[in-house]
Amino acid sequence: MILEIDNLVKHYGQVRAVDGLSLSIGEGEVLGLVGESGSGKSTVGKCVLRLTEPTSGGIRLAGRDITHLSRRAMRPLRRDVHIVFQDPYSSLNPRFTIEQIVGEPLLHHGIASRREAGGRVAAMLEQVGLRPEMRTRFPHELSGGQRQRVGLARALILEPKLVVADEPVSALDVSVQASVLNLITDLQREMGFSCLFITHDLSVVEFLADRIAVMYLGKIVESGPTAQIFAEPRHPYTQALLSAAPVADPVRQRERRRIVLGGDVPSPVDPPSGCRFHTRCPLAYDACRTSEPELTDPRTSGHPVACHLVTADHVPDAAATR
Ligand code: SF4
Ligand code: MG
């Protein structure tokens, strides 16, 4: 396993951003971590990168426990794990040229001299579909899509084992989102890195992720192979997310009944009792308010769900209530 997260908890004061989350990512595997804003998914990414200190739980990167590593001890491991940020503009230093930005990790880790770095940067730019002449430009001279390609080049130049991508396309125009997603897919296949791909939009990870984990208020409510999640979403929340996602096939789109969730995501300061989703779940019943469902896999099919209504021979249908 490249990444193993065991019962991770991260509280910011009263805010229970992540509240007992476990997941793992194998070599060359892409995991899509999906949830609405406020679900805690970005906090998971920040804990993995040690940009914030976990409150409790364990994180192992390529077999090494990094949960409480100091900044200094973490430094050599920064070669192995890299992040692609949501906003490609604010994450690129405006005073640096593209060559300086993309080559910086090589110099920082003492992997290449300034002269050697130039050649590697040119090759990397080509790999992300940018002309080598771009090297001398500054971030403000580039389009949003080009800047995100620069962000990718910077993240990949050290050939990391794991890439954490936090909403890497959501700040981009819809017209360029697909091309950047295709590029990430191609690069992942060529280079074989593992990826924790964080997104609020399930449809973004349909063709990229091997597995999907759906988060709600600091916990995973369902996870499984991508094809299974799309074919048979078991948790009412996943069913609702999927019902709102666009599908390419017009027949499937017409057949699908839209599940509209009432209200907003409750505050993570004081999450609902019992099942955290009960305040918005169309199928909620008495037990949901008092007893918290465990994440279990009754069919032992690598597809665990946290809902009282899911059993070995029953999958609830949140669209059937109205
Ligand atoms: Fe809905 Fe109850 Fe299942 Fe939670 S446990 S998802 S409230 S039916
Ligand atoms: Mg976020």
UniProtKB/TrEMBL annotation:
SMART domains xref list: AAA
Domain ABC transporter residue range list: 3-242
Keywords, in A-Z order: ATP-binding, Nucleotide-binding, Transport
Alphabetized GO MF terms: ATP binding
Family of this protein: Belongs to the ABC transporter superfamily.
Protein name: ABC transporter ATP-binding protein
